[in-house]
Amino acid sequence: MITTVTMNTSLDKAYFIKSRIVNGTVMRLDSCRTSAGGKGVNVARAAALCGAKVQAAGLAGGFNGQQLEALLDKDGIAHQFVHIAGETRCCINILDQEYGSTEYLEPGCEVSADEEQQFMQRYPEIIRDSDVVTISGSLPRGMSKDIYGRMTAIAKDMGKAVILDTSGEPLKQGIKSHPTMVKPNQDEIEQFFGIKIHNMQEVIRYAGKLWDMGIPYVVISLGKDGALLVSGDGIFRGRPPEVEAVNTVGCGDSMVGAFAAALERRYEAKEALRYAVSVASANAMSPNTGDFDPKNIERLTAQATVEKL
Ligand SMILES: Nc1ncnc2c1ncn2[C@@H]1O[C@H](COP(=O)(O)OP(=O)(O)OP(=O)(O)O)[C@@H](O)[C@H]1O
Ligand SMILES: [Mg+2]
Questions:
Q1: Is residue 184 lining ligand 1, measured as CB closer than 6 Å?
Q2: Domain span holding position 202
Q3: Which domain CATH number covers 274?
């Protein structure tokens, strides 16, 4: 089983509007959709579509938290959230013809030291039956910046593979516990090393530096250009087939979900990369986040290419 952890969950609202947006006026929406959100929740949906047994975990609170759990129930995704006093935030995505997607993210509630401790107490029990644990996204205000590092260390001590997909200080702290895999995109690796990347040679160099820090699988995702994997079996470049991209939000999360499934199935590094770039490209073809037609996976996997460098 796979457990996906999301500390900063959200209730995602997509607002679709056909008319031109005129700021400062009343705008009527043509349709809207509410879904359970937060990066690890997207990972859970993607892993489930890959056919993996998965549960979503993390923090949820208030009526929004209850609705998030109800939406997961509807999607048939098991969950074990620790309930907090604050209200789970809403994130609004306005989709229109002129601007494409404009997101409004609520800051979210503060998490107390007591609530953090409650989560950490329950965490070993929550992940007990899982082979792979994924930890995704930002931390809510009030949480310790080293919590992902502590969660990684606990899971590894319990014999589990850990995928850490975050950025900034939580990534810097988390890497110290040597997760099995990290998946920064280009922005995130630039921020991590405080550099600018100009070419593939530099992607390889900095991915190698992360690998040298004791991370067995370093994946750098490069949007439509695919991804680079540095592993003990070598360095691989994976490219997805060309697809008609309608919404690339959550492509990274889908990649993490697919890689988690690949680790659980003990795919070889090269095949894990092929599978992950393909599943992620399936997400790009779908208007929903971390949600795609699983029927496309086999065809896309056959078309994706992986080259050993
Ligand atoms: N336009 C695209 N066409 C095909 N595949 C894509 C496209 N964009 C992304 N992908 C696939 O998704 C993978 C991850 O994408 P990306 O590098 O954008 O992740 P990310 O920035 O972490 O995304 P997010 O954090 O929004 O989930 C890529 O390696 C690729 O396989
Ligand atoms: Mg990402």
A1: no
A2: 40-57+111-308
A3: 3.40.1190.20
Residue 75 resides in a domain: no
230, 206 in Cβ contact below 8 A?
no
Indicate whether 203 belongs to any domain: yes
Residue 281 C-alpha to ligand 1 middle, in angstroms? Answer: 7
- Domain tally, the chain: 1
Summarised one tens digit per residue, pLDDT across range 109-162 is 999 999 999 999 999 999 999 999 999 999 999 999 999 999 999 999 999 999
The rounded distance, in Å, linking the Cα atoms of 202 and 308 is 17
* Separation of CA 249 and ligand 1 centre (Å): 8
Q: Is the CB of 222 under 6 A from ligand 1?
A: yes
Nearest ligand atom owner, CA of 286:
1
Could you tell me if residue 252 is inside a domain? yes
Span 36-65, pLDDT tens digits = 999 999 999 999 999 999 999 999 999 999
* Residues with C-beta atoms within 5 A of ion ligand 2: 252
Is residue 116, in this structure, part of any structural domain at all? yes
Nearest residue (CA) to ligand 1, atom 29 = 226
Say how many C-beta atoms besides its own lie within 10 A of residue 182's C-beta: 28
Hunting for tokens 């329950």 — which residue is that? 122
The model carries a pTM of: 0.96
